[in-house]
Amino acid sequence: DIVMTQSPDSLAVSLGERATINCKSSQSVLYSSNNKNYLAWYQQKPGQPPKLLIYWASTRESGVPDRFSGSGSGTDFTLTISSLQAEDVAVYYCQQYYSTPSFGPGTKVDIK
Amino acid sequence: QVQLVQSGAEVKKPGASVKVSCKASGYTFTSYDINWVRQATGQGLEWMGWMNPNSGNTGYAQKFQGRVTMTRNTSISTAYMELSSLRSEDTAVYYCARGVLGSSWYVVFDYWGQGTLVTVSS
Q1: CB spacing of B114 vs A104 below 8 angstroms
Q2: What string of DSSP letters covers B62-107?
Q3: What is the radius of gyration, based on Cα positions, of chain A?
């Protein structure tokens, strides 16, 4: 099974500032035949189900603001919120779908 | 619009079984797999398995093999997840989610149900 880790566990960022979350997989999630990274990001607010933000490591889901971006390849990935808004306070999870799905432990984002 | 609406909260005793339903609307139910993901209070997300509503085929995470059964009733666009031999560690919110992008085992989840809290307590 592929184990996902995230860092930091939590971070506090001032409104309008950049937030960066890292995700690492225990083995590569890059599928060589199509050169796609099988990595997704979700946002979960309290009392709500997760919301899909990004898939294929860097493709934004329809309707997701462009301040959210994903990058990385192989085993190391990053979710960046370019200018943090109050409504972005949430826990963020990465998920690999290269093999049976597994999620990272989550990163909590708060306002400083 | 796509919606997945789950059944209400359950309280069960250790050793019992629970069956959670997930009613789909706004799309063709048989065109997308339904997956189940659970989340213990204050914890992360744990994938349990998938069910193809068209064929009825299923695939379960190894951890839940032998204890989980996923079924469907296509006439009412509803998927079900039954978990047996419940223990206190099964206390969690259980979500159904639609799987997209890949084949059954290799998917992301674009729509989620609202979640069903299952509490296992003596």
Answers
A1: no
A2: GGGTTTEEEEEEGGGTEEEEEE-S--GGG-EEEEEEEEESSSTTS-
A3: 13
- CA-CA distance, A99 to B102, in Å (whole number)? 11
> Can you tell me the distance from the alpha carbon of A112 to that of A68, in angstroms, rounded to the nearest whole number?
19
Q: Is the pLDDT of residue B102 over 80?
A: no
Answer yes or no: is pLDDT of B104 > 80.
no
- Which residues, listed in sequence order, are joined to residue B112 by a DSSP beta bridge? B97
Question: Is there a cis peptide before residue B14, judged by omega within 30 degrees of 0?
Answer: no
B121 Cβ contact list (under 8 Å, min separation 6): B11, B12, B13, B14, B88, B91
Q: What is the pLDDT of residues A82-99, one digit of tens each?
A: 999 999 999 999 999 999
Residue B103 binned pLDDT confidence (cut-offs 50, 70, 90): confident
Q: Are the C-beta atoms of residues B4 and B95 closer than 8 Å to each other?
A: no
Chain A residues with CB inside 8 Å of B44's CB? 93, 103-106
C-alpha B4/C-alpha B8 separation (Å) is 13
Q: Which of A49, A61, A103 sits opposite B115 (nearest CB)?
A: A49
Q: Are B109 and A50 a contacting pair at CB < 8 A? A: yes
* DSSP letter, residue A61: P
Tens-place pLDDT, residues A44-59: 999 999 999 999 999 9
Contacts of B48 in chain A (CB under 8 A): none
Q: Does A102 touch chain B (CB under 8 A)?
A: yes
